[in-house]
Amino acid sequence: MDGELGDFLRSRRARIQPEEVGLPSHGRRRVPGLRREEVAQLAGVSVDYYIRLEQGRGPGGVSDAVLDAIARVLRLDETEHAYLLTVARPHKKSTARPDRPRVRPGVQLLLDGMERTPAFVLGRRMDVLAWNALGDAVNGFSALAPAERNIPRQVFLDPAAAGFYPDWTAVAAQTVANLRIDAGRHPDDPRMAALVGELSVKSADFRRLWADHEVKECAYGTKRIQHPVAGLLTLPYETLTVPTDPDQTIVAYTPEPGSETAERLALLGSWATTA
């Protein structure tokens, strides 16, 4: 993850045209967006300071005020702003807790109690750690080898993914944007580096999206799935962070009661039970 701060800042300033922030464009530019000198001027810092920051040579104790000013100039949204604060400071390797993801029994009982709601738990790198019966019926997690139970791997390496997700392009972009947030929080994670490396080698789509440096949390939304048994499912979803482990997130699909999708899920649950 070396150079992530500089890559992120360059990608963000490339999105903004000078006229948008009240600066003259001076005709055609060699590269799109704002120049480093212009960002520095608008943020109220020296050009040398900003250049060193973007090159990863800035002081480790860069202040919130400076980062907030840069975020304002680059028009970062709340998620991007939080990501900037995360990657702008040196990270110490965590030795307090090894990366051995375990879902507490109480969380599994919670999932199992949601009989009419497809639900599962995501951990670091968007690994799938646990699920309930209906969540499995929708996504087929139990049929996968443990090493393959990972959302980015499924989206980019499974040949059936494009048919499973009618809106695959949007799902792929959202997956990468969410994965990058996790990568920023854990820059020294060798398994993350291995995952990103493998996906970059095997998927041109992943490689292109990863280079965009988009960051976005998938806290809620709607996902469409073309299920081989149940047909088209339109699935609103909500996510909840497990209080005792902020790296674990419960994802629950919440279709409107009485909707066609809710009826199809009920039939799918019956089919899965009998099968």
Write up what this structure looks like.
- There is one protein chain.
- Helices cover 46% and strands 13% of the residues.
- Helix 8 packs antiparallel against helix 10.
- A hairpin with a 5-residue loop joins strand 1 and strand 2.
- With 275 residues, it is an alpha+beta fold.
- The protein is elongated and about 70 Å long.
- The chain has a five-stranded antiparallel beta sheet, with helices on both faces.
Spatial strand sequence of the major β-sheet: 2-1-5-4-3
The global form is elongated
Q: How large is the count of helical segments?
A: 13
- The radius of gyration over CA amounts to 21 Å
Structural class: alpha+beta
Helical amount among residues, as a percent range?
Answer: 40-55%
Strand content: 5-15%
Termini, distance in Å? 45 Å
Provide mean pLDDT, rounded.
89
Low-confidence stretches: none
- Number of strand segments: 5
Q: How is the main sheet built?
A: 5 strands, antiparallel
Helix-strand string: HHHHHHEEHHHHHHEEEH
